[in-house]
Amino acid sequence: MGNALRFLYGQCCSEPPTTTTTYGSAGDQQLGHHGVSSTSVGVSALAQHLYHFEITSQVPEGLSEHVSSSKKAQSNWYKKLSKAWRESKPPPKTPEEASRLVIRTLQRHQRPDIEGILSFYGLPLPHSLVELTAGDAPPLADGLKFELHTLPVDARAVADGDTVTVYVSTSDARESSRVPQEVHMAAVERNEARAHKNYTKADALQKQIKDAGYGVLHINNEEILARKYRIRLRGIDAPESAMPYGKEAKDELVKIIDGKCLKILIFDEDQYGRFVGDIYCNGIFVQELMLKKGLAWHYTAYDKRPELEKWEKSARAKRIGLWASSNPEMPWEWRKNRREHR
User: Fold this and answer.
1) 179-227: pLDDT as tens digits
2) Were both Cys, which of 94, 217, 231, 302 would link to 19 (CB 3.0–4.6 Å)?
């Protein structure tokens, strides 16, 4: 039992996979003795305490300062949380995911105690969590072209709040028959060159692979040949990086998908060569979350789904994110003005 949670804890606290192409560590600040980033320190501490509880049956010191219930009640909470954490697949990685697990597991207990536990770990309180629609995204319009299942995404692959670069392994059924012969050969020759420490040749072959739209990714001590896709999130338009809330939109998208494998439904290709699609991450419809957090507009010029309009209106009414401003500038108008003044 303890080993199972220790494995989950290791997954939770591990750095996102690194690759030999565009991937790398997220680079956010490391905090204290936890040795984890500011975005995951509370999640890591909770996982560590649950693992410790399974070994010692002891709840963490200091928790009683945040809750009113007895030590016996606290032990009951941690027993339930340990079981829920072990059974979650995958285990929580973000503060929002950990907070939802705590709230869901302890829903029959007193609200002040639940909020006390969340405060103890610095996790989001119930009122600050965005409620997501159960199940799939809005009904799909005609025109679905194909579906992608990506390798883990890294922070550096996120360009802004509505664009991300992903990689799909060439062992994927759809991809395997599409790899050009010269890319296959270049990948084999690159491995041989590296084995013989001929790094000049290996680098030249790596460039050849990259120029063909592929990459060699190093994940879990394994090199994987993968196809590169630039993805534009369908139906939303996030603030540009230089606009107010541009950084917040990008950071939110990073937080949602960093280190995760995605399911992407592709509908179109835009004028910049990006594939336009709906993105799912651990069952979450990413566009829904971005809209409900007030970090993107519903892009009505290209997407008429009423659900997206409803989610934007909900954020507007709550004055969340960019809607805290009474008259935020539309990204498409901002881009148009920039082009006209060049």
Assistant:
1) 999 999 999 999 999 999 999 999 999 999 999 999 999 888 889 999 9
2) 217
- Give the span between the Cα atoms of 206 and 210, in whole angstroms: 6
Residue 281, pLDDT above cutoff 60: yes
Q: Is the dihedral of CA 258, 90, 225, 172 positive or negative?
A: negative
pLDDT at 309 over 90: yes
pLDDT tens-digit map of 44-86: 899 999 999 999 999 998 899 999 999 999 999 999 999 999 9
Residues 106/156, Cβ–Cβ less than 8 Å: no
- Long-range own/partner contacts, residues 68-77 (CB < 8 A, 24 or more apart): 68/110, 68/112, 68/113, 68/116, 69/109, 69/110, 69/113, 73/109, 73/113, 77/106, 77/109, 77/113, 77/117
CA dihedral (126, 131, 136, 139) in degrees, to 10, reads 180
Per the annotation, the verdict on 232 as an active-site residue is: yes
Residue listed under structure tokens 């309009």:
309
Summary mean pLDDT of the chain: 84
Output the pLDDT for position 93: 83
End-to-end CA distance of the chain: 63
The verdict on whether 223 is a catalytic residue reads: no
Q: Which helix (H) or strand (E) holds 160?
A: strand 158-160
Of the candidates 232, 234, 252, 305, the residue annotated as catalytic is 232
Quote the CA–CA distance of 95 and 45 in Å, as a whole number. 11
Q: Which of 156, 274, 288, 312 is catalytic?
A: 274
Q: Which of 225, 181, 220, 179 is nearest to 206 (CA)?
A: 225
Taking the C-alpha atoms of residue 296 and residue 238, their distance in angstroms, rounded to an integer, is 4
Distance CA 166, CA 158 (A): 9
